[in-house]
Structures are given as C-alpha cells and as structure tokens.
Amino acid sequence: MNRLAVQLPGLSLKNPIMPASGCFGFGREYAQLYDLSQLGAIMIKATTLEARFGNSTPRVAETPSGMLNAIGLQNPGLQKVMEEELPWLAQFDVPIIANIAGSTMEEYVEVAKEISKAPNVYALELNISCPNVKKGGMAFGTVPEVAAELTKLVKEVSEVPVYVKLSPNVTNVVEMARAIEAAGADGLTMINTLLGMRIDVKTAQPVLANRTGGLSGPAIKPIAIRMIYEVSQAVSIPIIGMGGIQSAEDVIEFFYAGASAVAVGTANFIDPFVCPNIIAELPALLDELGFEHISECTGRSWKKGEPSVYCGA
Amino acid sequence: MNRLAVQLPGLSLKNPIMPASGCFGFGREYAQLYDLSQLGAIMIKATTLEARFGNSTPRVAETPSGMLNAIGLQNPGLQKVMEEELPWLAQFDVPIIANIAGSTMEEYVEVAKEISKAPNVYALELNISCPNVKKGGMAFGTVPEVAAELTKLVKEVSEVPVYVKLSPNVTNVVEMARAIEAAGADGLTMINTLLGMRIDVKTAQPVLANRTGGLSGPAIKPIAIRMIYEVSQAVSIPIIGMGGIQSAEDVIEFFYAGASAVAVGTANFIDPFVCPNIIAELPALLDELGFEHISECTGRSWKKGEPSVYCGA
Amino acid sequence: MMKREHMMIVAHEPIAENIYALTLTGPLVHEMNKPGQFVHIKITSQADPLLRRPLSLCQIDKETSQCTIIYRKEGIGTTLLSEKRPGETVDVLGPLGNGFPLDAVKAGQTALIVGGGIGVPPLYELSKRLVKKDVNVIHVLGFQNKDVMFYKNEFAKLGETHVATVDGSYGTKGLVTDVIAECAISFDVLYACGPKPMLKALEQAFPNKEVYLSLEERMGCGIGACFACVCRVPNSETAYKKVCSDGPVFKAGEVIL
Amino acid sequence: MMKREHMMIVAHEPIAENIYALTLTGPLVHEMNKPGQFVHIKITSQADPLLRRPLSLCQIDKETSQCTIIYRKEGIGTTLLSEKRPGETVDVLGPLGNGFPLDAVKAGQTALIVGGGIGVPPLYELSKRLVKKDVNVIHVLGFQNKDVMFYKNEFAKLGETHVATVDGSYGTKGLVTDVIAECAISFDVLYACGPKPMLKALEQAFPNKEVYLSLEERMGCGIGACFACVCRVPNSETAYKKVCSDGPVFKAGEVIL
Ligand SMILES: Cc1cc2nc3c(=O)[nH]c(=O)nc-3n(C[C@H](O)[C@H](O)[C@H](O)COP(=O)(O)OP(=O)(O)OC[C@H]3O[C@@H](n4cnc5c(N)ncnc54)[C@H](O)[C@@H]3O)c2cc1C
Ligand SMILES: Cc1cc2nc3c(=O)[nH]c(=O)nc-3n(C[C@H](O)[C@H](O)[C@H](O)COP(=O)(O)OP(=O)(O)OC[C@H]3O[C@@H](n4cnc5c(N)ncnc54)[C@H](O)[C@@H]3O)c2cc1C
Ligand SMILES: Cc1cc2nc3c(=O)[nH]c(=O)nc-3n(C[C@H](O)[C@H](O)[C@H](O)COP(=O)(O)O)c2cc1C
Ligand SMILES: Cc1cc2nc3c(=O)[nH]c(=O)nc-3n(C[C@H](O)[C@H](O)[C@H](O)COP(=O)(O)O)c2cc1C
Ligand code: FES
Ligand code: FES
C-alpha cells in the first residue's frame, strides 16, 4: 500500500505533492538536482499560443514572508512546449499538468486542444487568474459567467480532464467555484496569487516594472486555507491546494482544509529540494498523527467525527 | 511650521500617525506607557449599541508575518463608551475617531447619531467590513449599493465627518470606494483585515474558536499598498491607510501609494511604543528623502513629475 | 512599571527533556515584583514569528539584577529561543499581569502549591517568597514523566514536596489531585498553575477554600488592549476579565474556567 | 555541481564603511570553480526575509576549503547577515551561474579588469586566476569615496591598479572610464562588474574589443526556473537570457543592457 497515492480525475499520483506552475519552469533546472520521477506530478509554466517575453524587469520583489512577481506569462509558446519541453519531460515517470493561458477565449481553446494531445499531459490547469497580464487573465478569473463559459469551451476540446485555477482576488470564491463546477470542470486548483504592490522608499516608484504583481509565499497561506475550507464544502470536485506551502505540516493543514493534493510554489526558490523533502517526511508525520493514508486528512476540519477510513489506492 | 501636521475633513492632526481601531482599546493601557497627546489621533475600538462579549477564545492565531483575530467586536456598548471611555480620553489633547459597527443599518445610525455628539469625537469610521461577526459586518462591506446606502444614512445623522473603512475581501475595491464617495463619505480608511484561517495540525480543528478570522500585520502590507494605489487615483476624498505598518519607512510607502494619514494596528502589540517612535523618526526620514512636509509624499508613486510643493498646515 | 528592554542572556541551558532555563539580566529586573507575573518576549527582530511569547517569571533576583524563566520548547518561537546563546539579547516587555497574592496567607499558616508541567515555574518564586514570610509550604508537582520533570530538588529545599507523574515513572502514578487526596494534605490557601483541566479539578475539589489559579490564554498584546485573552465572569452575558492584565492569577470563582 | 549546504562562518569582519568580508568553510567550496560565479544565501531560517540573496564569490581557496564573499550592508538581508558571528552557519545554495571565461585571454596578453563599488569582489578571484596563467592584469577600481574603498592593496599585489573615486577623496576624481581614457590603457580583453551605467559606458567605449560584463538583476530562484532575471537579446521580440543561469557574465552585445 502506498500511503501517499491519490486518485484525481485523469491523475493517478504516487503522492499528492507537485510543484506549482511558474515556480518550476519546465523542470530542467530541478532535474539537475533530483529525479523528477519522485514527484506526484508537475505543473508546468503557463503556456500561451505564441511565445511571450513577459514584463520588464524588475519582476520580483520581496515582502514580509512573501514575494511579488510580475513575470507576465513569459513562455516559449505552444509549439516549442509541444516539440521540446513535453518530450523532454517524458523521460520521467511523472504526469504533467499543463497550465494554459491566453488573451482570448479562442487562444485558450486552441492551446487546450493541442496541448491535451501530448502523451504525458494528463490534465489541464486553466490559469484564468493571472494578475500580471493586461488582457484576459484577471477578468476570466473574477466574473463567474465568463469563467464558466471558458471552462465549457475548453472542456469541449480537451482530451484530458480540466482543472480551473481560482483567483483569490474575489469577493465570493464559492460563487466562482460553483459556476466553474457547473460548467463541467473536473477539479479546482487554488489559490493563485493575490494582487499586491511595493513602492521603493528612495525612488517613490513601484519596485516592480509592472507596478503591481502577484503575492505568493507563506504570507498568503491563511487566505488559501480559508478559501479551500469554504470551497471544498460547497463543491464535489477535488481541489489541488496551494499558497505558501513550505513543509509537510503545511501539506496536512491544506488537506484538513479540504484539499486532495497540493502544489508547492515559492518554496522551491528558497529550498530547491523542498518537494522531495516533503514527500520523504510525510509518512512519519502521518504516523505521528495516526493516519494510515493521507486521503483521510482531506476535509477533516469540517467533516466532524468522521470515522478514520482508508480510502487510497 | 510643523512638517507632520495634516488637515483632513474634521481632523486637524499634529501628525498623521494614529493607532488603528481594535489595536489600542480605548487607550488606557498605552496611556501608562506614554502621553497619548503625542498621537495624531486615536481610532477607538468598534462601538456597538449594546455591550458585546464577542467570540469564544482562542481569538488570535499567529501566521507567517501576520496574525488572525476573531475578537468579534467585543466592546462595552455605546452608553459606557459615551459615559466612561470618551470622557476619560478627553484629558488628552488628541482627536478621537470613533469606529462604529452594527448588525443592522438602524444600529449604525443610532450609534453614529449619539457618539458623534461627544466633544472629543472629531470623525466617525464606519466599520462596514468586520469579517468576524455573523450578521452585518461583511455584507455591508462587499456590496457597493448596501455600503452606499449605509453611508448616506449615517451622513444624515452624524455631527462630524464620516470615514468609511473598506474591506479588502472584494473583487473590485475601486467600485466600492466610488460608490461610497458618491454617497457622501468624507474620507476612506483602508484596509481592514483579510479573511483567513489556520488549522491545528494535531487536532485537525481550526485554531480560532470562530474558525475564520481577520488577517493583519506585515503580511498584508503589499495588498494594502496596491488597494490604496488603485483607490487614491479613482476618488478625490482622502485616505487613511493601514495594513502592516511597522516603521517610518512603511508610513512613507503608504503616503506614496496615496494615503494622507495612516493607522498602525498589529504593530502596537509587538512594540507598544511603535506610534511615538514612528512620529519621532519621521522628520529625519523626510530630511533624508528631501521632503519639506509629509503631505508631499501623498500619491507620489502615481503623480508623475509633479513639482515638490509645500502643502501642509 | 511595565517597560520594554533588550535584556542580556547570562545563562541558558536545558534542565530536562525540551525544558530550558533562561537567565536574563538588565535594569528591568528591578520592576519585577510579584511571583506569577510574566514577561512578553519577542524572539527575533523580524516579522516571522510575529507575536511576542508570554513566559512566567520563575526567579527574580534583584541583588544580581537577574531573572530566570523556565520554558518548554513547543513551537517555532520557543525553538528559536532555545537557540539563543549567552551574550545575545532578547526583547522583553514586562513585567505583565498581577501575580499571586502573598498576603492571602499569614506566617505560620500552610500554603498548598500545586503545579502541572510547564505551569510549575512561577510557583518557585512564589514559594520562596512565602517561605521568607514564614509560611509553611507544601508542593505538589505533576509531570507527564520523569524525563520532563524539573526543579524537584529546588522545591524540596523550600518545603515538603510531592511529585506525580502520569506514567508513574517518578513519584505517585497519576495526577496532582490523586496525591492531594492520597496524602490528605490540609492547608489554608491553595495556589496553582497548570493545564486547565487540573485547575478545574482543584476548583471543584476545594469549593470552600481560598484558591488562586493562574490561567493561560492565547495573547495578542499582553497588556490589555486587544481583547484576545478574555474569559467570562459568572452570571453575566457581557462581563469579562482579561487574563493578561486582570490575571493571569484569579481567585477561584472569579472567572469561568 | 550546485548544492545546498549549511556552511560555517570562519571569519566575518568589516573591511570598509558598511562593507564586510565573510569567510565560509565547507565541502561546497570544492564545487566552486569559476571566478564570477555566485552563491545564493538564505539568511534566517524563518519566512521573513523570505528570499535568498545573491552574492559573488570573491575568493575560492580549495586547500583550506574556504571561500570569501564581500558584501555591502544594504537592506534587511545584508543587515541580518552582518550580525552573524564566526561559528554560526549560513544556508548556501551554489555555486550558481557561469563565471568569467579565463581562456578568452592568453599568457602574455593584457586583461583590463574594471570594477565599480560592490562589483569589485568577483574580480579579485578572476585576477588571481589570470595572473596564475601569466596574463598581464591592469585593474581600474571605482568607488564612491575613500571610506567605502576596499581591496586596493590586494589588487595592487597582482598588478597595476588604478582607483577612481566619485568625490576625489582617493585616486583620480571621477569614474573608471575617466581613468581608462586618461591613462590611455591598452589591453586585449576587458572584464567588468559594477553598476549598469558603468557597464554600458564600457560597452560603448570599446565596440571592437572583446568585453565581458557581469550583470545584476533581482532574482527569485537563482537557478533558472522562475524567469525573474531575464534580459533581452538583440533583434528579437521574445528571445531572452537569464542572468542567474545563462550569466551573470555575458559577452558585450550578447544581451541588451
Ligand atoms: C501568562 C502565561 C504564562 C506562561 N508561562 C510559561 C512558562 O513559564 N513556561 C512555558 O514553557 N510556557 C509558558 N506559557 C506558555 C507559552 O506562552 C507557550 O508555550 C508559548 O507561547 C509557545 O510558543 P511557541 O512559539 O513555541 O509555539 P507556537 O505554537 O508556534 O505558538 C503560536 C502562537 O500560539 C501561542 N501559544 C501557543 N501555546 C500557548 C499557550 N500554552 N499559552 C498561550 N499562548 C500559546 C504563542 O504565544 C503564539 O502566539 C505561558 C503562557 C501564558 C499565557
Ligand atoms: C549575481 C549577483 C551577484 C552579486 N554579488 C554581490 C556581491 O558580491 N556583493 C554585494 O554586496 N552585493 C552583491 N550583489 C547584490 C546583492 O545581491 C544585494 O545587495 C542584496 O541582495 C541586497 O539584499 P538586502 O536584503 O540587503 O536588500 P533589500 O533591499 O532588503 O533586498 C530586497 C530584495 O531585493 C533584492 N536586491 C536588492 N538589491 C539587489 C541588487 N543590487 N541585485 C539583485 N537583487 C537585489 C534582494 O536580493 C531581495 O530579494 C549581487 C547581485 C547579483 C544579482
Ligand atoms: C514566479 C511565479 C510565477 C508564477 N507563474 C504562474 C503561471 O505561469 N501560471 C499560474 O497559474 N500560476 C503561476 N504562479 C502562481 C503559483 O502557481 C501559485 O499559485 C502561487 O504562487 C501560490 O503558491 P505559493 O505561495 O506556494 O507560491 C506563479 C507564481 C510565482 C511566484
Ligand atoms: C485584534 C484586532 C482587533 C481589531 N478590531 C477592529 C475593530 O474593532 N474595528 C475595525 O474597524 N477594525 C479592527 N481591526 C482592524 C484594524 O483596525 C486594521 O484595519 C487591520 O488590523 C490592519 O492593520 P494592521 O495590519 O496594522 O493591524 C482589528 C484588528 C486587530 C488585529
Ligand atoms: S492579550 Fe491583549 S488584551 Fe490580553
Ligand atoms: S532568478 Fe529565477 S530564473 Fe533567474
């Protein structure tokens, strides 16, 4: 029995730990440090139809227990990802979740249609919530009807299950989640970054060239936990949780809130070995907490008095 | 010339530094440590019509560079505040901003009408955004029409200018700000806390008895800065900024974003002398940055190339 | 008076499993008066961990300007604290709260002093002061097991001392209340500090005695301003006491445990 | 190969105003090969400050397993770093990036080495290596003023060394480019590290020479994964180089400054 294995739509994961999109590139750098086959899955950097350079630098700024980024969806474009990155990743025994973005619904649809054909892409993650691009991005992530429409269109063309990535920059995340579930999404991933800003005291100008950026890291963890807690009780599709995860304890906290798997973003920059380390530490932590299988932790903060039942692979 | 003096509707402040509501009680504890007359103003704990006990404990939880609180508007009620707290505060040469809350519009109106008569209350701060109370609180703070209606009703009865405190838990803070400005508010204060949660790894239960709470402290500073940056460009009423301020440099960052004065909340718990310390440090910092008067800093991150003009009292 | 001071560490060592004794020096010691008062410690200068940590005064020595704190390495704050070395400073706010009332018991009378686990430290200074007043002291200390036991000998020097361990690895197997019942200890005033279930049991066991209990609650400010640490008062919907500034020591019955 | 290691501080002292020399020891030194490479340092174990700080290797001594970094106390990270004492450890990820190409210049040829301010440190190991190869080295070092000047003597031991200070408090008053023009220095290859305006001026001044420039950019990961540190490549809308993993040293013209 594998105590960490989890089953999600399209994804049979040896463990529920995966690097978050944009925090792991296409895996090449981390592959120099450890065997990527150890990972539950990999969420690759957002892919758009054409190559994009992204925003001007500076693109990152530090904040208390967090960081702002305004990369602006830099990526080599669909064709290169299909021809170079995904085939390269195929050497590892690890499912890929393709994060896709676009400026128009048509662009999303086109990317989804193509990239979902790649043999090692087992699921899509619709990035409808990137705060760092002028067109698209944000609007798709904040208006339920728009998000639902996009989900529907992508579902129609995708050959693999579709996960939609929720933005935390909304008044009512449950409403968004419900609309997206109703539109046919197979799962949710949450949360993307919070829109933030820093201003340099000496120059009086924003630190980021793009002015605003997305806040990630431990600072946002309590917001992620709250949103997953709310959404997991309102929908029945699974949630891949993220936002400030740094340790095995954090992973358990996300499961308790309602996540069925998690992604680790910013922490990869602080400790490039964080994902394999967490995977290695989880079994001992499960022992300490008295769980047979990690899936028992999902939703435990709101599933009161539920008997401890093994429900894994 | 007083380089720190600022003029706001109803408020002629010797400096723009004030403790934030709920983080300073009614001043009694801090008065044992320093002379409260040093402060620009004091925002007192939210007052409701009747005394409230608030939520069960634990009411606070620590998070990375932040804290969650779910006090639940504990306060001695309007009458006691009018008869005991405000008269006691009158011994200090410092204007009081009365933070008021309620479960219904009527309650807000009643409290506003009475408390605005107190001789040392120079402005009201409508807490339409408290995430820790079941009724009222949140809804008033997230629906523009409701917030506008409440603002109008309170303006009708208040004998002093009315500031409205914005919630960051919204998709579009500019829309809220515009609606509230249009309804006649004299100023805005922002931001209140972000809704968050922590779950105890050992018990699988939320750390706070109330389950969710409001996130404050340095962790939220980049979100506050971004929102003030957006709102200050969209409205013409002044903004009292808050959210994670700990130092004189932080104060300047809030001014650059668009604030005309600031409030310090959580930092009072870490260093009870933080407000007088910041006030003491500001003049040297203004020298270093080359400003005659602190008001020159307001909005400097977006007022491009504006000549440096003295505009203070 | 309460002040904020960067106090210098003069000694810092483990005295039991995950239990450390930290001795600090600085003028602030001269403000520390009552046993049962606590200090609020900021462990790093950075924003993470953000909040101060409340820790009780275990010994106050005005002659040497030193005070000692005994703490258990629990979470991140106390873990970081445990890494500090002599010569470094810590940021201390204090003394806070009202301590144990010494004048509740007279010379020649008997005080029963009951501590559970990490509730034991403040009772040491209390006992020293009572002994100085010629009060007869009896100590009952409860620990999980022998490995986390501390200060047994120090207490024994001051008066009769009983130990209970949950696993029976030292002294009586069981709880402090078992020892009190077993030994049929009689006393005039009871002082206690420890986990809430222990305090509740003591309150119930001695409804007609003068009992003083030191409480713990999660804190924000530690000085009475934030309303984080309130507890309810009997027979009222809205009345409250703050553990940090009205307590941490309350007379049994004063607040609802 | 890049590794993560907790390296021990063996020496740490100020060598000029707000400039510190930090000497570390550990097996990781044996992975450090090229002058111009940098390490990424996590200063506290806590989440604030969150990110690692990129700092260049100034000396690599495999015999003693020691490396030295020279840094300026700037913001919060370097301030906290400056408080660390010998015996403590720091969390180092490295070595990162590609250093200066040593084989761009042959024995008997002349290398002009130009450093500005806190760009000077990586040039010291470079110069030592070139001297070992019997390359003739000429150094031009620029500082704001005399108080923040460092390593002048160390460089002087390796070869001809000129200093410029902005305020004229030492050496030539003005910029490094003034010195180069004034002294009509001739050379085969130029290596430089320093503020961007200096690098741009050098690139423009010597369009027909082989010039290597070490760049700085705000970093997230430091290893090429996050796309924080990119710069544009001439004649392309989308092509880019990453300062952390493709640089920090680039041949002039390779990227747009
Ligand atoms: C008045 C008072 C006196 C105390 N005296 C002592 C003492 O002498 N020795 C000792 O070992 N412990 C004492 N405690 C408990 C001590 O404060 C906690 O063990 C400590 O705060 C844990 O911090 P941490 O960072 O290690 O744990 P974490 O779990 O990381 O702490 C997270 C947050 O929870 C708070 N917290 C955690 N446990 C407690 C607790 N039991 N009580 C209050 N807040 C808590 C922390 O202060 C912090 O804000 C006392 C508590 C109070 C209220
Ligand atoms: C490849 C490389 C090599 C470097 N080598 C050295 C060296 O040998 N000696 C030295 O003194 N400095 C060097 N620097 C600059 C050094 O990284 C910054 O001075 C340092 O990060 C400032 O951190 P702080 O916490 O003191 O400042 P803060 O202003 O608090 O830093 C906030 C954030 O901005 C980043 N940052 C601030 N200034 C710079 C900068 N100039 N370049 C890149 N990021 C910055 C920090 O890394 C951090 O993420 C180098 C930079 C790079 C990119
Ligand atoms: C540098 C950086 C780049 C990111 N790029 C993307 C992206 O391309 N697509 C996406 O959906 N999310 C992106 N994100 C968001 C992360 O995937 C993740 O949702 C967020 O950072 C919260 O997790 P964390 O706190 O663990 O980093 C990016 C985050 C960072 C820090
Ligand atoms: C313990 C606590 C209690 C608070 N109570 C109130 C309140 O009664 N009314 C209110 O408008 N805001 C209240 N706030 C919010 C603060 O006034 C402030 O908006 C927020 O904490 C952000 O500022 P900070 O990060 O400096 O704390 C409270 C905050 C804290 C931490
Ligand atoms: S901890 Fe703030 S009132 Fe007691
Ligand atoms: S710093 Fe992450 S790619 Fe260079």
From TrEMBL, chains A, B:
Pathway: Pyrimidine metabolism; UMP biosynthesis via de novo pathway; orotate from (S)-dihydroorotate (NAD(+) route): step 1/1
Pfam family, one: DHO_dh
Dihydroorotate dehydrogenase catalytic domain: residues covered: 4-286
E.C. number(s) listed in UniProt: 1.3.-.-
Catalytic activity: (S)-dihydroorotate + A = orotate + AH2; (S)-dihydroorotate + NAD(+) = orotate + NADH + H(+)
Entry keywords, A to Z: Cytoplasm, Flavoprotein, FMN, NAD, Oxidoreductase, Pyrimidine biosynthesis
Enzyme class: oxidoreductase
Domain of life from the UniProt record: Bacteria
Known cofactor(s): FMN
Record text on cofactor binding: Binds 1 FMN per subunit.
Localization per record: Cytoplasm
GO-annotated cellular components: cytoplasm
Main location: cytoplasm
Binding site for substrate: 45, 69-73, 127, 192-193
UniProt function note: Catalyzes the conversion of dihydroorotate to orotate with NAD(+) as electron acceptor.
Record's subunit section: Heterotetramer of 2 PyrK and 2 PyrD type B subunits.
Family recorded in the similarity comment: Belongs to the dihydroorotate dehydrogenase family. Type 1 subfamily.
Annotated PANTHER family: DIHYDROOROTATE DEHYDROGENASE (FUMARATE), DIHYDROOROTATE DEHYDROGENASE (QUINONE), MITOCHONDRIAL-RELATED
UniProt name for this protein: Dihydroorotate dehydrogenase
Organism: Thermolongibacillus altinsuensis
TrEMBL record, chains C, D:
Annotated residues for binding of [2Fe-2S] cluster: 221, 226, 229, 244
BP GO terms, sorted: 'de novo' UMP biosynthetic process
InterPro entries named among the record's database cross-references: Cyt_c3_hydrogenase_gsu (IPR012165), Dihydroorotate_DH_ele_sf (IPR037117), Dihydroorotate_DH_Fe-S-bd (IPR019480), Dihydroorotate_DHASE_ETsu (IPR023455), FAD-bd_FR_type (IPR017927), FNR_nucleotide-bd (IPR039261), OxRdtase_FAD/NAD-bd (IPR001433), PyrK_electron_transfer (IPR050353)
Alphabetical list of PROSITE patterns matching this protein: FAD_FR (PS51384)
Keyword line: 2Fe-2S, Electron transport, FAD, Flavoprotein, Iron, Iron-sulfur, Metal-binding, Pyrimidine biosynthesis, Transport
Pathway linked to the protein: Pyrimidine metabolism; UMP biosynthesis via de novo pathway; orotate from (S)-dihydroorotate (NAD(+) route): step 1/1
Entry keyword annotation includes Iron: yes
Cofactor note: Binds 1 FAD per subunit. Binds 1 [2Fe-2S] cluster per subunit.
Essential cofactor(s): FAD; [2Fe-2S] cluster
Gene3D superfamilies: Dihydroorotate dehydrogenase, electron transfer subunit (2.10.240.10), Nucleotide-binding domain of ferredoxin-NADP reductase (FNR) module (3.40.50.80), Translation factors (2.40.30.10)
Any one GO molecular function term: metal ion binding
Subunit structure comment from the entry: Heterotetramer of 2 PyrK and 2 PyrD type B subunits.
Functional note: Responsible for channeling the electrons from the oxidation of dihydroorotate from the FMN redox center in the PyrD type B subunit to the ultimate electron acceptor NAD(+).
Family, as annotated: Belongs to the PyrK family.
Designated name of the protein: Dihydroorotate dehydrogenase B (NAD(+)), electron transfer subunit
Taxonomic source organism: Thermolongibacillus altinsuensis
